């Protein structure tokens, strides 16, 4: 018998179990898009260089293009399709919509999944490369625009919506109780009607 | 990407047995480099041995006051760990300066050390590359090499090691523990990477089939005052074009101990032992810092497009040591 | 005439009408339509830069698991290439597999089709293609003896004696600037799914003009235009790269040969090779001025490269014909043919690289004159088109500078370079002008009054992220006097008839014209019928060709003033933009929310262009080295500070619409504002983009610093 190059796996995506047989070469990204028709997760580079395919695995953000489906194991996967509560948008989604945190929309699901994780990581006290003093004695950093920019830098946006993305994440952080700090410059954006 | 079999190892012995039995097998941990290289056709393993379920994901104190970091600890967990941040802040900073939040959640400590160069000739299978295809040549020397090595390279390869984490580990005398069918063994990071020479495709001193199980940080009080600085071509989410980890112990204006390692200048994280030797016992002054870093960089051999790395490293290290000295004086 | 008391829709910020679909993942892009029996095509691209394909050894690959076809020049059907499409002669790159010639590295030589993407990728990798390689030439240099003046567009425009005026000038600047090869890098790679459905060819594609692609496919495959339908509902960015490309043709070929749906999705690396790019430029600018700053001479000569397949002109010298007048005014383009892929339009084609050279040169001239750079521009403000003599439809460049200077705090600036320091950073500020044509092209549209009281707009427009769908919703609602929620805009479908593409900053203006006209027509019809809507609905359809022909001939452009503050660490070469402000005069703003995003997006491209973007070709192989998003850097979030865009009133008398485009304007001048700020910070003038740390450091080491 030839050694198996495909395996039967069970993926738990947005709380729903899916049993399928995958070619070992299949990434989580392709399993979601091609097999489960969950096309909200986007393929921007397929090389871990853009972040468009960001999903949460076991509650942590990962790039699903470099995650083999067979290796996901029994960890829960959350994709953009599982972020809203029914018809009720998550505050991060609502902030992206209201503050125009996107243009073409292709990087957006990855940005939103990443932003969800950024809020969690920040709440857990994780430092970032923008954190002046990483020692625990320095205390957790405030979620300044600089911190948001650094933490969101794994998600490229070619339309150039970063300014609105940072505002949307800051706004959502306020909504969800995160600590934020105001940008010193004057704000010009008017909210959508 | 060719077809492959997949095994999820349950214990270290099982993983080692699988790796030992199949020379075509490769360890899969975070997959952030391996899966990418498989898609590019650079890596073509026949079997993947998934080691992420192994019980190697802990950070524990050692008896002598150091820390043992399991090989499958993710970059994120390493950088967030209070003891790492307290006792080896440059290591936490180095990890945080690497890749992105998503990649750091996947990538592991063991995988980080084993990652391959990002030299664009290495990752383009249509082109010659001595590292990927021994004997085919190195077009980087006469081609695009603005982010290639200035130290320790050879005419056969001028690629750099892309790790940030490794630079801090090198500065702190980390020791790699691995397991083979023969049992456990250790390799100081200083001996972990092989010289480039005529065999750039042979990168580490690990025996075939070895599984990295942990990386140990010996106690190093000097590391508590340490810092990592990285220069790259965008403000985040980019590989270094030059970086340095430094730790400095100054008392009464004299350098008692210094640790210094460079990134993005060589085929490995580059421990700057010459500079350390020159500086130890000297006054903590700009002149002494400059003398030390110049002594290290005296061995630099630059190509036309990467000659800037010499002043870059000099300036970077000078600024870093000055900052640390000012902090110490405060 | 509006007979309603409804509040205005146009000019009021409105979030994107498809926004909810985009933030929930419901919006489907080109490669996200699933069909029974879908097969996956994977391109094999040439590894050599010039030569001929000697053999494609497809036998072994055909036997690989899942492989259903291997298309190449030895077996592909013949297609037409001698047609003239919607936008002129076709790009020869798109008619794949027609001969054995390899004109550049990354040329499509085969398509492997398999049951799954994994099988297709492995088989494509395994396909052995043998080449007869020929020596290639990819050396782009200013002194190429084989450069020539192209016979398209307006390659040369001139008045006066440039040499004489330069000789008579009190202050002269003669400098050469360069910009590198740049790539669009839209986040969504190109993808097309083709299938035959009831005798019609249907293609789900990602493009800037579904009508354009449908027209090309019909002509290329000699099909009845009515039997071709191209749909492109959501597009993950385009920036000029998403027109007719090789993947649509390959998908149609394979779907036809196999009689089953076939998707061809490009990998990120493949997008760098076959979807176009912005040519590198080398630009000589000569300026001569009197002591008071009045320009006597304005010269701008530009060289760009093209492929051996097709001439392409990066019209970088065009903006000088609008911005500044001089006694002698010479602008000229030349091109050189090399063994490289064919360049194409990329966000603000011409104006983006051209403004870097001209607006840096103006700053250099101001420095030599000891004059404020804004005052220098004010001194040379033309009353009419400097070369055309035509009046401007509206022009308020100086209003942009005045408002921008006030908000940016320009008056407090110490003009001397290298005077501000903060820790390891040297600080500086810079400014530059922006302009872009505001053209319009004929389009058709229909507006239907539905029996349920709603309205449906149909137009073959494309929303590539511009907010066009939302803008057209507001335009229709305004004319119809209804709430925008009552209007459904359907776009991205070639069945809706001919319309202009999302390009040249002409989309919203051209489409809004058609929608306005159709909605007015419908409103009038409804008034005549006493607002009675028949059960089948009531539709008004228009073609704006005649309306556009009636438009008076004028210089029609948008304008803007860019301001940037940078921090430079000259010891490491790092440059960070600290803040940017752009103030624009861009006609009537339809949707302030999305227009601002467009302008800020363009300015963000300016940061990326100034500091990051550069494609490098390996001289030995002719290949693009590092053709991925780790090798080709675009700005990441951390590179982009608070970038603000705003506008001043810009009425356009006599223009029935008053709308101008904002898609390209934001990038124009943005890179120059940043590099001018770098000069102010460091005293070092940079004339070659991008300002990578190695270049900044090298310039400092060379002692160019003050």
UniProtKB/TrEMBL annotation, chain A:
GO terms for molecular function: 2 iron, 2 sulfur cluster binding; metal ion binding; oxidoreductase activity, acting on the aldehyde or oxo group of donors. InterPro entries: 2Fe-2S-bd (IPR002888), 2Fe-2S-bd_dom_sf (IPR036884), 2Fe-2S_ferredoxin-like_sf (IPR036010), 2Fe-2S_ferredoxin-type (IPR001041), 2Fe2S_fd_BS (IPR006058), Aldehyde_Oxdr_Iron-Sulfur (IPR052914), Beta-grasp_dom_sf (IPR012675). Keywords: 2Fe-2S, Iron, Iron-sulfur, Metal-binding, Oxidoreductase. Pathway: Alkaloid degradation; nicotine degradation. Transmembrane segments: none annotated. It comes from the Bacteria. It comes from Streptomyces reniochalinae. Residues 7-83 form the 2Fe-2S ferredoxin-type domain. Residues 180-193 have a biased composition (Basic and acidic residues). This is (2Fe-2S)-binding protein. Residues 174-193 are annotated as: Disordered.
Automatic annotation (TrEMBL), chain B:
Keywords: Oxidoreductase. Residues 1-222 form the FAD-binding PCMH-type domain. GO terms for molecular function: FAD binding; oxidoreductase activity. PANTHER family: OXIDOREDUCTASE (PTHR42659:SF1), XANTHINE DEHYDROGENASE SUBUNIT C-RELATED (PTHR42659). This is Xanthine dehydrogenase family protein subunit M. The lineage of its organism: Bacteria, Bacillati, Actinomycetota, Actinomycetes, Kitasatosporales.
Automatic annotation (TrEMBL), chain C:
Coiled coil: none annotated. This is Xanthine dehydrogenase family protein molybdopterin-binding subunit. Keywords: Molybdenum, Oxidoreductase. It comes from Streptomyces reniochalinae. The lineage of its organism: Bacteria, Bacillati, Actinomycetota, Actinomycetes, Kitasatosporales. GO terms for molecular function: iron ion binding; oxidoreductase activity. Residues 24-135 form the Aldehyde oxidase/xanthine dehydrogenase a/b hammerhead domain.
């Amino acid at each position: 018998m030839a050694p198996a190059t495909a395996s039967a796996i069970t993926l738990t995506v947005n709380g729903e179990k899916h049993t399928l047989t995958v070619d070992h070469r299949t990434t989580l990204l392709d399993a979601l898009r091609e097999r489960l028709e969950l096309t909200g997760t986007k393929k921007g580079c397929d090389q871990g260089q853009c972040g468009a395919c960001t999903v949460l695995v076991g509650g942590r953000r990962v790039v699903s293009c470099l995650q083999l489906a067979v290796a996901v194991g029994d960890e829960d996967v959350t994709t953009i399709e599982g972020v809203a509560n029914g018809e009720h948008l998550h505050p991060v989604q609502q902030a992206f919509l209201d503050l125009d945190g996107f243009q073409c929309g292709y990087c957006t699901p990855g940005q939103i999944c990443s932003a969800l994780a950024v809020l969690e990581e920040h709440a857990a006290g994780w430092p970032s490369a923008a954190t002046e003093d990483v020692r625990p004695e320095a205390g957790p950093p405030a979620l300044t625009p600089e911190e948001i920019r650094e933490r969101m830098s794994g998600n490229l946006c070619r339309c150039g919506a970063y300014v609105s993305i940072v505002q949307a994440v800051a706004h959502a952080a306020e909504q969800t109780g995160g600590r934020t700090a105001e940008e010193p410059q004057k704000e010009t954006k008017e909210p959508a009607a | 990407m060719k077809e492959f079999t997949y095994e999820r190892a349950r214990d270290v012995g099982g993983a080692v047995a699988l790796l030992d039995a199949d020379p075509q097998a490769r360890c899969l941990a975070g997959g952030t480099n391996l899966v990418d290289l498989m898609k590019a056709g650079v890596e073509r393993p026949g079997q993947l041995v998934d080691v992420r379920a192994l019980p190697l994901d802990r950070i524990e104190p050692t008896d002598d006051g150091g820390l043992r970091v399991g090989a499958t600890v993710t970059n994120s967990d390493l950088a967030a760990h209070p003891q790492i941040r307290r006792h080896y802040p440059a290591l936490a900073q180095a990890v945080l300066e690497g890749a992105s939040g998503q990649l750091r959640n996947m990538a592991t400590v063991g995988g980080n050390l084993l990652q391959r160069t990002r030299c664009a000739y290495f990752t383009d299978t249509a082109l010659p590359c001595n590292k990927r295809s021994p004997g085919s040549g190195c077009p980087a020397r006469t081609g695009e090499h603005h982010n290639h090595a200035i130290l320790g390279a050879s005419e056969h390869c001028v690629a750099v090691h892309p790790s940030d984490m490794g630079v801090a580990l090198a500065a702190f005398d980390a020791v790699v523990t691995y397991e083979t069918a023969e049992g456990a063994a250790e390799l100081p990071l200083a001996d972990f990477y092989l010289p480039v020479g005529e065999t750039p495709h042979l990168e580490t001193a690990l025996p075939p089939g070895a599984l990295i199980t942990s990386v140990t940080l010996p106690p190093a009080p000097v590391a508590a005052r340490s810092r990592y600085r990285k220069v790259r071509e965008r403000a985040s989410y980019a590989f270094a074009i030059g970086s340095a980890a430094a730790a400095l112990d100054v008392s009464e204006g004299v350098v008692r101990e210094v640790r210094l390692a460079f990134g993005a200048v060589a085929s490995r994280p580059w421990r700057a032992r010459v500079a350390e030797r020159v500086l130890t016992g000297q006054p903590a002054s700009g002149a002494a810092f400059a003398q030390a870093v110049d002594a290290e960089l005296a061995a630099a051999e630059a190509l036309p497009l990467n000659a800037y790395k010499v002043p870059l490293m000099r300036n970077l290290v000078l600024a870093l040591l000055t900052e640390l000295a000012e902090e110490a004086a405060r | 005439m509006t007979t309603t008391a409804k509040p205005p829709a146009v000019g009021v910020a409105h979030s994107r009408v498809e926004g909810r679909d985009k933030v929930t993942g419901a919006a489907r892009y080109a490669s996200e339509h699933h069909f029974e029996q879908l097969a996956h095509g994977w391109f094999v691209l040439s590894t050599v830069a010039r030569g001929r394909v000697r053999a494609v050894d497809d036998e072994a690959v055909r036997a690989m698991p899942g492989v259903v076809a291997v298309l190449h020049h030895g077996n592909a059907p013949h297609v037409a290439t001698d047609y003239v499409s919607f936008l002129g002669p076709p790009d020869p790159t798109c008619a794949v597999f027609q001969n054995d010639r390899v004109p550049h590295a990354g040329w499509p030589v085969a398509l492997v089709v398999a049951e799954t993407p994994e099988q297709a990728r492995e088989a494509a990798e395994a396909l052995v293609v043998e080449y007869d390689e020929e020596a290639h030439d990819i050396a782009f240099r200013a002194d190429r003896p084989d450069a020539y003046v192209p016979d398209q567009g307006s390659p040369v425009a001139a008045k006066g004696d440039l040499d004489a005026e330069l000789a008579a000038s009190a202050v002269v600047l003669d400098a050469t600037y360069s910009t590198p090869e740049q790539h669009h890098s839209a986040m969504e790679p190109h993808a097309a799914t083709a299938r035959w459905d009831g005798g019609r060819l249907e293609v789900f594609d990602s493009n800037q003009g579904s009508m354009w692609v449908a027209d090309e496919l019909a002509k290329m495959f000699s099909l009845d235009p009515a039997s071709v339908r191209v749909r492109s509902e959501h597009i993950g960015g385009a920036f000029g790269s998403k027109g007719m490309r090789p993947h649509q043709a390959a998908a149609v070929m394979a779907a036809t040969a196999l009689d089953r749906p076939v998707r061809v999705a490009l990998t990120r690396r493949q997008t760098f090779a076959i979807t176009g790019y912005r040519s590198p430029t080398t630009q000589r600018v000569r300026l001569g001025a009197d002591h008071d700053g009045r320009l006597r001479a304005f010269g701008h000569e530009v060289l760009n490269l093209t492929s051996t397949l097709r001439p392409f002109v990066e019209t970088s010298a065009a903006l000088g014909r609008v911005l500044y007048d001089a006694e002698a005014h010479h602008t000229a383009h030349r091109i050189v043919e090399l063994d490289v892929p064919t360049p194409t339009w990329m966000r603000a084609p011409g104006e983006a690289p051209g403004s870097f050279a001209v607006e840096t040169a103006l700053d250099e001239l101001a420095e030599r004159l000891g004059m404020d750079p804004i005052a220098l521009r004010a001194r040379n403000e033309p009353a009419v088109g400097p070369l055309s003599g035509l009046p401007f439809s509206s022009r308020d460049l100086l209003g942009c500078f005045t408002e921008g200077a006030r908000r940016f705090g320009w008056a407090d600036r110490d003009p001397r370079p290298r005077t501000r320091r903060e820790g390891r950073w040297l600080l500086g500020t810079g400014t530059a002008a922006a302009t872009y044509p505001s053209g319009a092209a004929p389009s058709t549209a229909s507006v239907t009054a539905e029996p349920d009281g709603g309205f449906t707009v149909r137009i073959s427009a494309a929303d590539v992220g511009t907010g066009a769908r939302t803008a057209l919703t507001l335009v229709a609602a305004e004319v119809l006097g209804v709430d925008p929620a009552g209007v459904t805009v359907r776009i991205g479908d070639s069945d809706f008839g001919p319309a202009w593409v999302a390009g040249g900053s002409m989309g919203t203006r051209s489409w809004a014209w058609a929608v306005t006209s159709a909605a007015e027509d419908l409103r009038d019809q409804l008034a005549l019928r006493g607002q009675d809507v028949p059960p089948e609905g009531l539709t008004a359809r228009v073609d704006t060709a005649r309306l556009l022909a009636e438009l008076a001939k004028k210089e029609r452009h948008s304008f803007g003033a860019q301001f940037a503050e940078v921090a430079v660490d000259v010891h490491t070469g790092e440059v960070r933009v600290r803040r940017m402000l752009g103030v624009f005069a861009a006609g009537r703003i339809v949707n302030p929310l999305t227009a601002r995003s467009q302008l800020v997006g363009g300015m963000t491209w300016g940061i990326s262009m100034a500091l990051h973007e550069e494609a490098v070709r390996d001289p030995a192989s002719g290949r693009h080295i590092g053709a991925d998003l780790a090798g080709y850097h675009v700005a990441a979030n951390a590179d982009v500070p608070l970038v603000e865009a705003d506008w001043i009133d810009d009425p356009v008398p006599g223009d029935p619409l008053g709308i101008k485009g904002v898609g390209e304007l934001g990038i124009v001048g943005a890179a120059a504002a940043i590099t001018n700020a770098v000069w102010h910070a460091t005293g070092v003038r940079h004339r070659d983009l991008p300002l990578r740390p190695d270049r900044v450091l090298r310039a400092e080491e060379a002692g160019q610093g003050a």
